[in-house]
Hints:
By secondary structure, this protein is an alpha+beta fold. It starts with a helix and ends in a 51-residue tail after the last strand. The chain is globular and about 45 Å long. Helices cover about 20% and strands about 25% of the residues. Strands 1, 2, 3, 4, 5, 6, 7 and 8 form an 8-stranded antiparallel sheet that branches. The longest helix is centred in the N-terminal third of the chain and has 24 residues, at about 5-25.
Amino acid sequence: MSEYLDLYDYRCRVAAMYRERNRALTAGEDVTTVLQRFRGQRDELFAHHPQSALDKEQRATFGGLRYFPYNPAGCCEATLDTDVEHTQQNITMNASETMKMTTVGHLHFMLGDRAATLALYWLDVYGGGLFLPFRDATSPAQSYGGGRYLFDTMKGSDFLRAPAEGRIILDFNYAYNPSCAYNYRWTCPLAPVENRLAVPIPAGEMNYTIATSEGNTSPARS
Length: 222
């Protein structure tokens, strides 16, 4: 199959995982069961799909991604404030590449007893999409130094809407690494300074030991 059709298939599978997660949580299924099923599906994609972020050598010894245990405190409701200046900025992807994205809102929420805010972005590339990168105080010792993503709707990952209007669920148990956390062949937009939180969020995906594959090139992805 064409590499690009493989990538399309990968994104379709990711989108289906998030739709199933959202359906299950909305239906009231046990949150830990839903999370474990989701993580198993993600591990399966990494282990076997040709568009896995891992190269063939890494997949040959792959034993599963590393995760923090389920953390109920890592799931909270956030108020979405869209009355913001639509500021465009270039986000660093690597030493020579950037990506344009525009601030479209601010998400205000509580982490334990501490108030926090993250900027929500729109990716200014063909098709666009809502994008929520962040970095927290578990980085770089426990989580990837460049930060993690909570969702990137252009690539199929999505968020869960709260019952109240203007609010969404931020479940950091589903935070995941950008592809460049696994292999240097990928280029990914990283969390900007305004989305670097001073508090630790021990939830979601942890660091992965990177094994590089020199000379590999692939379509940029996250």
